Amino acid sequence: MASYIDDKNAFDSQNSQGPVRRPSSDSRESGGDIEVDHVAEKKLVRKLDLHIVPVVMLLYLLSFLDRVNIGNARLYGMEKDLGLKGNQYQTATSLLFVTYVSSELPSNLVLKKFTPKIWISTIAVLWGIIATLTGVTKNYAGLIACRILLGLVEGGLFPGLAIYLTFFYTSRELALRVGYLFVSAALAGACGGLLAYGIGFMDGVGGVRAWRWIMIIEGLPTFLLGLSCYFLLANSPSTAYYLTSQEKTLLTTRLLRQPGQTASGQQMHKKDVLLGLRDWKIYAFCIGQFGADTMLYGYSTFLPTIIQGIGAKSKWTTAQVQALTIPCYALGALTYLLVARLSDAQQVRGPYCVLFGGISVIGYGILLSDAPSGVHYFGCFVVAMGLYVVAGLPLAWLPSNQPRYGKRTTATGLQLMIGNTSGIMAPFIYPTSSAPQFKLGHATTLAMVGMASLIYAAMWIYFRRENAVREREDGRSGESGEGGEGGLMTAEERRELGEGDPEFRFMC
User: Could you tell me which of 164, 180, 179, 158 has the C-alpha nearest to residue 237?
Assistant: First the structure.
């Protein structure tokens, strides 16, 4: 398999992400000796979106749905039927993330070896089987086994999809496409509530409780999609069945026009992996992701329970609670789409992460306040506005600043692995005993999101200063006629430095 990939130069040399470049106002842009027709390029991107985005969105929608539908199942008697006591529900929820995070980085490192179509389709088929079988568990031990196995096979999906998108899209386009994945998470939350509301009426059909039908009905489509992915996903631009030969050439050109792109740099090198494991900037993003994901998993898993607590005095029914979750997720999805579009257009990441992190902090402040239930429900909307922005935008920001494949896939794997460990903690900050106000969970999440916002503010400042230093050095080397820091290197050798290339500019 490895030799097959090596023979396909496009798989290694075309798939890359690089720094920001100033767009030309002409219909064609030159980058060195590379020229791109922007009219044809826009048509190509639309074609990529048509064939790639629906598949990856549906994959992540079902993934997120199968991971968090336990929150909806809880409202339909799962705890009572399985005899769960105390914090056993929280334990079952969190144990998924133990195996989930442990599989993320290793999965990314073998993605190319096994090829995306085989690896991703295998992941989907296995988790579909496990998610479906969760609906037939008889006790606490069976639930724990299913959650552990689900995390093990599903953990590689999101990091794999995030890296897969970099095989086809440039850094200028990445935020919106990663954003589509988080829109899928929002849709999963909204659809999960809607589906659970509908499936709830099946309680007792065939002698099966409603919560079991939720698990079974939501798990089966994943199995079918996994089988389809083998035929729908292309391994690389060179094997994309939906592209003409001219479009494949154009796709190669548009990726290679970015500084820092070399054929060698898009192969997996142990040196790049080790550099990624030692880069402090990557770990800063990892810690920020941990803070943001605390909100993502706490909110997504416990929103039905939180809203149920808000409406405790008004005695909202389960159906009402499920319906009230839908507009919260819808607002979060629409907000992220708008911000991702602006972020890609402006090539700006940091300020949006900080701003919308602050908005979510305000939302949790509202939830912590001594206010009527209507105000608390409004707080859920305010949290949702920043939810996917602060959790999703950094996942486009970090890989955009890693042009070499080995370091990029390591960075994304670490970012998601460390970030998703928050899923282990999140269930325990919303213990049943803290209902209906859940002050511990809201206060902890507020602090975590505030921490993430401060980290992203610091990284934004750092990248801006680093770019300013490189601009000054470029100016001095231009005046002196010397090559500055990279003066003793050839242009090709400088490009091999990745983000260390003096011509590279970080996305801020």
Answer: 164
Cα 455 to Cα 11, 274, 284, 461: the distances in Å are: 34, 23, 7, 10
Contact 339, 350 (CB under 8 A): no
* Whole-angstrom distance, CA of residue 411 vs CA of residue 277: 8
> What type of residue sits at position 406?
G
State the pTM of this model.
0.77
Tokens 């994304």, located at residue = 412
CA nearest to 243, candidates 52, 427, 439: 52
How far, in Å, CA of 52 to CA of 163, rounded? 13
Please, which residues bridge with residue 35 across strands?
Answer: 30
The DSSP result for 418-451, as a single string, is HHHTHHHHGGGGS-GGGTTT-HHHHHHHHHHHHH
SS3 breakdown of the chain: % helix, strand, coil, rounded to 5? 75, 0, 20
φ, ψ of residue 430 in degrees (nearest 5) = -120, 60
Question: What angle do helix axes 174-199 and 38-74 make, rounded to 10 degrees?
Answer: 30
With b for 16 or more beta-carbon neighbours within 10 A and e for fewer, the 77-95 pattern comes to ebbeebebeeeebbbbbbb
The residue behind tokens 């209906």 is: 436
From 464, 453, 446, 460, select the one nearest 397 (Cα to Cα).
Answer: 460
Mean pLDDT for each consecutive 10-residue tract of the chain (508 residues)?
38 39 41 63 93 94 83 86 88 87 89 91 94 92 94 90 90 86 79 80 89 91 93 91 92 76 70 90 96 89 78 72 84 91 91 97 94 87 94 90 86 90 84 81 95 97 93 67 56 74 85
